[in-house]
Task: inverse folding
């Protein structure tokens, strides 16, 4: 049934999960008692008092050692169910799962914590459950607490912790045991900006060491940046499973539609006390035009985007990225200084300004939007983002489509 365990870290074969849904509490009692009376009283117990809800339809896939698999999908798609099945929290209705290696899972917020225990006691409890000996926990305890950043509260009951403190401690424990397999649900979204950055650095370090990672997130950009393959779940079914770029593009297209109107200008006074970075100003303009509205001539006008940011000095210099979408939110083009080979130089206060020019913009007639992103130095973790400005492209001819591709006409 299962594949070669020397090749696969996770082998999922025909796995599904079905729940029984009862309309009333008394129906649950009837379902428990009456079928058991059927052997003595054949005329009762034939009725089912529940409806079946298939949270996950049968699916089969394998995850190679050292591979990073992203899981995307809307709320209720079955993502958390799949991760809980693989981590052993749930048992499948059909099929089987083979896991080869030490597993550390960060699922529901604070799952596995005893709220009456202190943080210190929960460190020992959870690390023991993850397979560490008492001596190993002693050796790693200070590192776990330091990474979590809650040293002054480590001897307080975790029931007094905030949601951010919960996730800090849980993530620190889960990633300190050098897991062969790391399973991460959306819980990281609870942490603040500085801790989110620390977390992704830790994940990338585990990835570099060859750990197998299942990463579930609503942030499609991070999923594409971190993962080799992506699984898209939709109402318990696998909608797509393949290379990260292709599946993320398909998923983004599925999510397209009318979006809420946002401010067209962006400016904020950054608070850098948490060790993060912020956009401070984004200005979008067009060269060779005096018009107050952004109206560009296709293949003639130059679009200019000026981006300023501030960042804490202890951070590596952030990256700047731009995305141009159509009016419905469909991604048309993007750029990032990290991939284009530009090294940004900051001033002594951690600030910088960059300008991006799109000469002879090749977009055809239509309405478009510029979005700005401030990312970490590896262009993975997002510090800040803004929907900056709308602009219009006009053209004299009747060409149709999105872009005017360079071409040469010849007569044979």
Result:
């Amino acid at each position: 049934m299962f594949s070669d365990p020397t090749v696969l870290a996770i082998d999922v074969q025909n796995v599904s999960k079905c729940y029984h849904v009862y309309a009333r509490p008394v129906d649950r009692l009837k379902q428990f008692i009456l079928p058991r009376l059927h052997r003595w009283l054949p005329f009762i117990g034939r009725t089912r008092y529940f409806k079946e809800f298939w949270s996950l339809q049968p699916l089969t896939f394998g995850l190679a050692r050292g591979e990073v698999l992203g899981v995307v999908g809307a709320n209720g798609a079955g993502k958390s169910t799949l991760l809980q099945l693989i981590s052993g929290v749930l048992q499948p209705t059909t099929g089987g799962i083979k896991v080869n290696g030490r597993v550390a899972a960060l699922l529901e917020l604070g799952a596995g914590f005893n709220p009456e225990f202190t943080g210190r006691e929960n460190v020992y409890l959870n690390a023991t459950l993850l397979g560490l000996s008492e001596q190993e926990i002693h050796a790693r305890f200070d590192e776990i607490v330091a990474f979590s950043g809650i040293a002054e509260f480590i001897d307080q009951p975790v029931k007094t912790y905030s949601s951010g403190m919960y996730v800090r401690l849980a993530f620190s424990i889960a990633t300190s045991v050098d897991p062969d397999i790391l399973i991460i649900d959306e819980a990281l979204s609870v942490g603040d900006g500085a801790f989110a950055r620390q977390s992704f650095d830790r994940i990338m370090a585990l990835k570099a060491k060859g750990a197998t990672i299942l990463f579930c997130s609503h942030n499609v950009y991070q999923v594409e940046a971190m993962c080799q393959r992506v699984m898209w779940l939709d109402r318990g079914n696998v909608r797509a499973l393949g290379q990260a770029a292709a599946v993320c593009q398909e998923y983004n297209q599925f999510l397209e539609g009318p979006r809420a109107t946002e401010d067209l200008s962006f400016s904020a006074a950054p608070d850098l006390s948490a060790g993060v970075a912020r956009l401070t100003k984004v200005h979008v303009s067009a060269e060779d035009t005096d018009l107050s509205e952004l109206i560009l001539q296709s293949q003639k006008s130059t679009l200019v985007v000026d981006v300023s940011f501030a960042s804490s000095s202890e951070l590596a210099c952030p990256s700047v990225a731009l995305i141009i979408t159509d009016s419905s939110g469909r991604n048309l083009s993007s750029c990032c200084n990290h991939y284009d080979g530009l090294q940004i130089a900051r001033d002594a206060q951690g600030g910088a300004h960059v300008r991006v020019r799109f000469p002879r913009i090749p977009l055809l007639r239509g309405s478009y939007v510029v979005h700005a992103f401030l990312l970490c130095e590896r262009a993975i973790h997002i510090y800040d983002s803004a929907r900056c400005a709308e602009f219009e492209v006009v053209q004299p001819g009747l060409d149709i489509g999105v872009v005017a591709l360079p071409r040469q006409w010849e007569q044979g």
